[in-house]
Amino acid sequence: MMDSDPPFHETYKTLFAEEESSPTRTSPNNLDRHTAVEERELPLIDLSCLGLEDEAERESCKEEIARAANEWGFFQVINHGISRDILDKMREEQVKVFKQPFYNKCREDKFMNFSAGSYRWGTPTATSLRQLSWSEAFHIPMTDISSFGALGTTFSSPVEQFATKVASLAHKLAQILAEKSGHNSTFFRENSLLSSCYLRLNRYPPCPVPLFGLMPHTDSDFLTVLHQDQIGGLQLVKDGKWIAVKPNPEALFINIGDLFQAWSNDCYKSVQHRVVTNPTKERFSAAYFLCPSYETVIESCNKPSVYRRFSFKEYRQQVQEDVQNYGYKVGLPRFIV
Questions:
Q1: What gap in Å lies between CA 312 and CA 310, rounded to an integer?
Q2: Strand ranges (DSSP E) for the chain?
Q3: Which of 17, 76, 179, 286 is most exposed by smallest CB count within 10 Å?
């Protein structure tokens, strides 16, 4: 069988050679893999409290969600309504797909009936190892979730079940956050449709040198729901320092995206996060992104506005332009009033 891993070393050999020959060689983007990063647990919220009869208990849970979104931008949830069976089966099928030969994965339209361009790996625009993400992913629009099958397996069934349930969870959390910021809004239901949201299946191969699995970034969406394995590697900025997120087998991880920060007028925070590679172990994760249509206009719900009005299409185009020109995303600072 052909190698399943993308040809990172061959494709980026020039970047590796430049790094080796540099007299001031440093780890990519000040990754500081040789410096200990404190591992911490994110705020843990039990969503079963939302179903209690006691209104005070329900409101207390909602307050916890809003507080974590404000103070951390990240939190974890348990009793989220997605069974261990669904999570385990989804992961099994995810592993099967990524273990297929690299050549097959590149032919995603014939291999999985995916839309062309769904399979992505590395960083095509990288001009140095500091800009290289050592990972591969299937970027699947929600409208494609039920229309494919893989390798004669039931791949679509567990993935579709997972995607449907995390989509419902994302909308539920977005509505709670809207309410707790003083806006009983149907904005997210009206603008984040099946056609605009997507699921991203990720694999981070082992990497013998200290590189990013995913470069430091913020998410360009409203809300992200993440299911990850126990390898670890997710890190985020808290109080100006990078911290490592402690894996939790029972939890899903939630983070605020740029659009929610702008819509909430900085009430909720979209924070920088990254994935660091493991030298000997591969890592898997699956993330659902709650996104609006390109035509959706984002406007701060409180005044005075921190950010000017902008469409999601305008935001995405600005991000792509900055990445092309500078090698990294600038994001919300581009839209400050």
A1: 7
A2: 39-40, 44-46, 74-78, 119-121, 136-141, 198-204, 212-217, 223-228, 234-238, 241-245, 252-256, 273-276, 283-290, 297-298, 310-311
A3: 17
The string of pLDDT tens digits covering residues 262-297 is: 999 999 999 999 999 999 999 999 999 999 999 999
The answer to the question of residue 11 being in a domain is no
Domain that holds residue 160: 26-303
pLDDT of residue 29: 45
Q: Do strands 241-245 and 136-141 pair parallel, antiparallel, or not at all (unpaired)?
A: unpaired
Question: What are the phi and psi torsion angles at 18 (to 5°)?
Answer: -65, -40
CA gap 26, 130 in Å, rounded: 9
Residue 231 forms part of a structural domain: yes
Q: Which residues contact 9 (CB under 8 A, 6 or more apart)?
A: 16
The total number of structural domains that make up the chain: 1
Token representation of residue 77: 């949830």
pTM across the whole model: 0.93
Asked if residue 299 has pLDDT above 70, the reply is yes
Which residues are part of the catalytic machinery?
283
Contact (CB, 8 A) for 165 and 86: yes
Report the CATH number that the domain containing residue 197 is assigned in CATH. 2.60.120.330
Of 211, 221, 214, residue with least CA distance to 121: 214
Identify whether 113 is part of a domain.
Answer: yes
